[in-house]
Amino acid sequence: MKRYQGSFRLLMAAIFLLFASGLAGCGSRQGNAEALKEGLQYLSAEAEKDAQEINQKLKEKKASQEKEQSTEEKDSTPEDTQESTHLPPETPDHSEDTETEVPPPEESLLPSSETPPETAAPEDPYADLKNQVETLNITPFSEAELAKMRSLFDRTVFIGDSLTQAILTYGFFDENHIKYKRSASISDLGPEIEAALQMLPDNIVFFTGLNDVSRFITDPAQYYEAYKEKILGILNVRPDIHIYVISLLPPSNDLARVNLNLARSPEFDEQLKRAAGDTPAVYVDCHWMVRQQLYLDDGIHFKEPFYTILFKYLAGEMF
């Protein structure tokens, strides 16, 4: 009803003005003018009232709309929302109710830019020996060291050719620990093996050389079979014994240049390594200790310092 109140007043003001105009046609000119003036004043006053009411209603409507919008924003946006309307709303803070849980960092699929710390390489127990070989400054056994070394190998017998004989020649061990045959190949060492077994050793060490190459030059596979046969034969008699096989070492460079058969020694060493691998025997690679300056003049046998390094190395590998 209120929305039509202003229009009703204007209507009444218009009727009054018409009425006043009608009276103007019947009355005096002065009275008519005054009546018309009063009608216009009344009409102007009513129009002003209507305008004020309209402005007031517009203000009230605008205030109501702003209040509704503020309520909606308060319900949908947390109190700490940033002013920018382009940012997504933040998660409401519930720190008063529960402790804040920090999410674990996501695992990146990209490789890390940081270089992982390098793992320290294990210390080489033979670094000092290798340095002695490299510099050819080989320290001989002292009397105390030699006695300790002999004690370690007390229940060990060495079997081989002239390379094994040199152990006795240089005085490292006596004949009870050395069984050898000069110029023999592995297939010729049956009697020496039997003699060694009679000593009831815990360990047997084979050290044969280039005679094996000369003996099996036409068929290296036969060398494999011959060595394997000797190893298995010993284990058949003494299953508890430990067998070590020293690698077949090459001739000197000078000899290899003039004797092409002996230069093929790496082929035979591979067969020796395979024979040890196919049995419980242990292959001991000694190539790293070979130096040209450690050969005797014949290019086959070695000087005493070579054997010093050999026994220090064997002590570490066997005990």
Describe the structure.
By secondary structure, the chain is an alpha/beta fold. The protein is 51% helix and 7% strand. The protein contains 11 helices and 5 strands, in the order H-H-H-H-E-H-E-H-E-H-H-E-H-H-E-H. Residues 77-85 have low confidence and may be disordered.
Task: Please describe the topology of this protein.
Layout: H1 5-26, H2 29-76, H3 127-135, H4 143-152, E1 156-160, H5 162-169, E2 178-180, H6 190-198, E3 203-207, H7 211-215, H8 220-237, E4 242-246, H9 253-258, H10 265-277, E5 282-284, H11 304-318
Parallel strand pairs: 1-2, 1-3, 3-4, 4-5
Helix pairs in contact: 1-2, 8-10
Which structural traits does this protein have?
about 325 residues; alpha/beta; Rossmann fold; five-stranded parallel beta sheet; 11 helices
Concise overview:
This protein has eleven helices and five strands; from the N terminus they run ααααβαβαβααβααβα. It is an alpha/beta fold and 319 residues long.
What percentage of residues falls in helices of 4 or more residues? 40-55%
CATH level-3 fold name of the largest domain: Rossmann fold
Reported CATH architecture of the largest domain: 3-Layer(aba) Sandwich
Low-confidence stretches: 77-85
The CATH superfamily of the largest domain bears the name SGNH hydrolase
The order of strands across the largest sheet is 2-1-3-4-5
Biggest sheet, in brief? Answer: 5 strands, parallel
Question: So what's the oligomer here?
Answer: single chain
- SSE ordering: HHHHEHEHEHHEHHEH
Cα(first) to Cα(last) distance is 117 Å
Query: Which percent band covers the strand fraction?
Result: 5-15%
Q: Pairing-aware structural class of the strands and helices? A: alpha/beta
Shape type: rod-shaped
Number of helices: 11
Mean pLDDT: 82
How many β-strand stretches? Answer: 5
In the CATH scheme, the class of the largest domain would be Alpha Beta
The figure for the number of domains is 2
Which radius of gyration do the C-alpha atoms yield?
A: 57 Å
